[in-house]
Amino acid sequence: MFLMQDRSGEPVVRLIEEFLTDRATRKPSPHTVQAYRRDLRTVASIAADEASPPLPLDALPLEALRPRVLRSAFAHFAATRSAASVHRAWSTWNSFFVFLVADGVVAGNPMPAVGRPRAPLPRPKPLRGADTPEQLLTAVARADGRQRDPWPQRDLAVLALALCAGLRLAELLALRVASLAGRAGERRIDVAGKGGRPRVVPVEPELDQVLADYLDSCRRRFGSRCVRPDASLLMDRRGEPLRRGGLQYLVDSCFRRAGIGDRVPPGARLHALRHTFATRLAEDGASAAEIMRLLGHVSLASSQAYIEVTAGQQRAAVRSNRTHRVLAGLLSG
């Protein structure tokens, strides 16, 4: 028989840390863990401030989080935040209470009694300009004399993986040498996707050659240790695995060297390369299901957004034809 634990008077912050420890077994990114903690503690802080009398966050007991209290806290939370942020926080709190129910700490989940907005699908943010990806690749493929230690093979490999395989930042960092698998002509990348969902992305001969050239340059720089199957595929200039900040700086540096900073959507940076990959798939006739498989989307709606954007761009291009203005003049005459 499953027995409930009487932990109603326990501080919420302690249970939050237990939840985050449980989530750690799923290997979320540090950024995701920070977002979980921030959403949980922020809403809990609002609830503590609204208690009568107000309580320090560390003294807020679990039993205080009744549906009425949570509704009020979320209303205040939502007042200065976007619908997407509120939806994300609601999902985090829902997962928190699901964990508490499963652990026998609470009898039920109060979150269905707390309203949440529909999360808008994010709009794709590809690089602007029809030939911008080609400009970017051309610029980084040659050594830049202004760099202290130019490594064009590595820089080109990073950009090509994002533009030709649509990999996320965390997926790039998780790649190992063994992730590049298969015989010549049948190459593939085994990707450890978001949420632990694996996927396979085909590698065309051009990308295969870029990666081969990069691995050859690794051998020349650091010896055979860097091409062991379990070695990180992407290295920094010291021969260590490339990290999040280093990868972001590398991509920003490539944008600057190519002189295309004004064509990169704000807040996109590396993700703009993934969006460019998906947008070009849609432009070339790929279906939403194909885009979904290649990008590792959970929802078909996320993939459909690229097709809808492409259709809108096509309509705008057709509309720009000045013949339409002639027709408009004839019709109004």
Could you walk me through the main structural features you see in this protein, from its secondary elements to its overall organization?
Residues 10-101 form the Core-binding (CB) domain. One of its GO terms (molecular function) is DNA binding. Keywords: DNA integration, DNA recombination, DNA-binding. Residues 122-319 form the Tyr recombinase domain. It comes from Salinispora arenicola. The chain has 333 residues and is mainly alpha-helical. The protein folds into 2 domains: 12-113, Tyrosine recombinase, N-terminal domain (DNA polymerase, domain 1), CATH 1.10.150.130; 132-319, Orthogonal Bundle (hpI Integrase, Chain A), CATH 1.10.443. The protein has helices at residues 12-24, 30-50, 67-78, 83-102, 132-140, 152-165, 169-174, 205-222, 244-258, 270-283, 288-295, 300-319, 323-332, and strands at residues 180-181, 188-192, 198-202. A 3-stranded antiparallel sheet has the order 1-2-3. A hairpin with a 6-residue loop joins β1 and β2 (188-192). α6 (152-165) packs across α10.
